[in-house]
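Go through this pair.

…
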Amino acid sequence: MKKIQPYIGPLAFLGTWTFFQFFYPYHLMRREQLSLFAFDWDYIRQTYHGTGWLAAFASDFLEQFFRVPFLGSLIVALLLTLIGRVVYRICRHFLGKWPSLGIAALFFIWSFLRETGNLYQTRYTVVALAYLSLVLLALQFKKVWLSPVAGVLLLALGAWALGSPYHHHYGKAWGLPRLNYERVIGLDIETSLEHWDRVLELSKKDLYMEEASYCYNLATAMKGRLGDDLLNHSQNHQLTLLFPVSGDRTIFTNGMAGEAWFQLGDMTQAEQSSITSLQASPKHTGARFLVRLARVNLISGEDGAAMKYLNLLDRSLFYGKWARSMMPGHQDEATRAQIEAARAKLFRKDFVHQSERPRDILVGLLEADPDNDLARNYLLCYDLMCYDLDTFMQDYEPHPIDARLYREAILIWLSRHDRMTPSQVSAYGIDLSEVDRMNRFGRNPAKYKNTYWYYYMKAMYEQQ
């Protein structure tokens, strides 16, 4: 057993790093997205003051490195291993090796599990390690009377610099890893970074969660495959296409909601999503939302408002270069072209925005820019998910798009209106082999679960 003891610390460090690096990386990246550290004296002075200023400063400084997965997992592994080590050193003043090791292991495991909690803040881990270190420092004084006096003074200093050792904003007192939710967080983060291939890779395992389906749908649409592949993934009717932005929804879904609206061209909903998320976030900051607000205002032509966010991001470690490249007068030709392309999608008339009525917004986007294929596919799929084939045909016929689900929906509509003739089918550019495939579906629907025929049939049975 004595030979094993020297390796316990390194093994704990390696195990923690491996877990957060390979099994839980997005958990830390999300924490970075919800915080910001700016290298600016005025910002630091205004942000970090009062009780607990040092803990807030240290945690925000560390969390900016969570954007780099290797560094994020390394920092967390180091903090947790140090907590176990300090607890062991404290216990050794009163207990033997193995009881001390057991207590240190329990404290390490508890801290590790807390770290896996949703919206957990690094600040608690920093606070716990700092307070334990102050206790250990006080125990170094040899005189009997000096150790408790030093302990009181050090803890008083800690109360001012670190704040309370417990706070409800730090997260729950206990947690367990949620690997499926970690994958949903990954989908959200990769969606915000516009890594569409990575989103589709993560979506290969269907999680049967609205948030996962939402990200899959957006990535599929951005790859031009929404009308073909929508039903290859689980869907909750039209609810998984577009999320409303609302104060009574979570910061997670509100932040996610803005991703589709931004790509579709509705800067009002995208801006509302980011502002609502900033207000609801634990620290009322968030690099992700500041980046979105900067992009929204640049596209809307509000350069002054955009500069407010870009100047703040310019003083951060990992967003400074991007912010400088986006500043008016410093944009390259490709950036200007992207902004102009996005600006072409904007509404041309005043419109009362209600994200609870997404169809009206989609129609408005298409009135502003009939070439907005993303909005058109979302509109058509929205009609299909609502089982409204008559409205679907009205939206489809002026600008037909060749896609599998649309062809399947047209065949249902023709059948319902007794127009399933070869000439009518051909008039919509549908090969007659699709009719044969529809007949095979009728004989064995279970073999065609990813078709609109199956989706529509199931819905009709449920309504009976």
Observations:
- The chain has a mean pLDDT of 90.
- Residues 402-464 form one domain.
- The radius of gyration is 28 Å.
- The chain has 25 helices and no strands.
